[in-house]
Structure of Polygalacturonase:
Amino acid sequence: MKETKNPLKNLEKTSGQLLFDVATEIEALDATNRLLWKTHMRIQVIRLVCALLLVTLLSSEVAESRKSKTGGTSFEYKAINCRAYSASLTDFGGIGDGKTSNTKAFKSAISHLSEYASKGGAQLYVPAGKWLTGSFSLSSHFTLYLNKDAVLLASQDISEWPVIEPLPSYGRGRDAAAGRYTSLIFGTNLTDVIVTGDNGTIDGQGAFWWQKFHKKQLKYTRPYLIELMFSDKIQISNLTLLNSPSWNVHPVYSSNIIIKGLTIIATLPSPNTDGINPDSCTNTRIEDCYIVSGDDCVAVKSGWDEYGIKFGWPTKQLVIRRLTCISPESAAIALGSEMSGGIQDVRAEDITAIHTESGVRIKTAVGRGGYVKDIYVKGMTMHTMKWVFWMTGSYGSHADSHYDPKALPEIKGINYRDVVADNVTMAARLEGISHDPFTGICIANVTINMAAKAKKQPWTCTDIEGITSGVTPKPCNSLPDQGQDNIKACDFPADNLPIDSLKLKKCAYRIKHE
């Protein structure tokens, strides 16, 4: 039997390069005095990231591709559904030279392949090469698959980015009051759609957009890399996403979503380059992702002020597992600030945050309305943090001046347990809202080792209520210690959410030529 190449070797090489880039960014941050690090701590962190990323990549269910004896390329991967028909982008005139626009080729391919939606579905294979493209839309019962050496390059020709209306739960664009540029990979009202690959790359070439944002030259909101709206049964997996113009992955008004095995890297600093933002979504699973972000690594959302309240579509039944995050200016996991439709039943476990502003942050304000409740976090490891826990009821950013000042958010049932952190500036900053306290906070089995130049007061608490058990350093009086006998307080739910019953199938294909 002919020996096949180990597909993980290329992944290991890719991860090594990414870690070199991360280390370079960290050195730049030191040089500008953004955060002071001791040399031994920097080396320790980089080694830890290397180990964590390698373990994550080796454990992920990656695709395997190899040359077929009969010619062409064969490959396998796991997906929510396999497809009866497959074609290559080159069949539709695609040219992977990094210069020729392939927007028409993508649109033509997807239009043709959509005819197979009721006949077992179709897959579009993107071979090795650099494929320059503007925005294009996916179809139902469809898979977009990127070869390990395929790079989608986002076009810098604004005419290739159509403008669409603001999201109804936001009422306006994020960067400007008008509409927004369609995301690079877009879809709406779809069923059974997959974006995956053998660790292929999507490069948003975001510096072009970041400059326009900083110079206030944007009439519309910047595009995201991947956005799927009003859709069901979504898989986004085994890809590398680089330098998004704004948010990277944005499922919105959707359900039954798996996001797995993503490596997301944004140059630091970069504006609003959130990693993964589930927004008014139900039954979502995010796992085995590595994110270096200019903003929150994962930001859970559900609409903005009066628009989100009216739309009334919460994010609920969300699982986040085995996330590794570097975000010097934001959170590993943020809940809000746009949470006016509600956020409920979020379960995060096995989270690692390094050189990140905060571990878990709840962001809200008067006028938001909505709720954040039944939040469960366990098994967090953090290194070099400004805050471990951060809640703020005065975030302040509003869609417009028409928000209702009587619309107060409900924050309750927030549970953290089994947390270890070191080199921390401040253990927690917990600030509720006057006459609207954040209640039902439970923190147990937490050890926080403070930095040499930490704040003298490790905890600040206002307008909050809750309990603690086995927490070091000693929490504020608003969180009375229940004693070591209650070290297992803040129980993590034992049941599984429905998304965990969605199993992936093994799919195999052969492309005759590339």
Summary: The two ends are 25 Å apart (CA to CA). Residues 376 and 492 are 6 Å apart (CA to CA). The chain has a mean pLDDT of 89. The helical segments are 8-31, 39-59, 103-113, 207-214, 305-311.
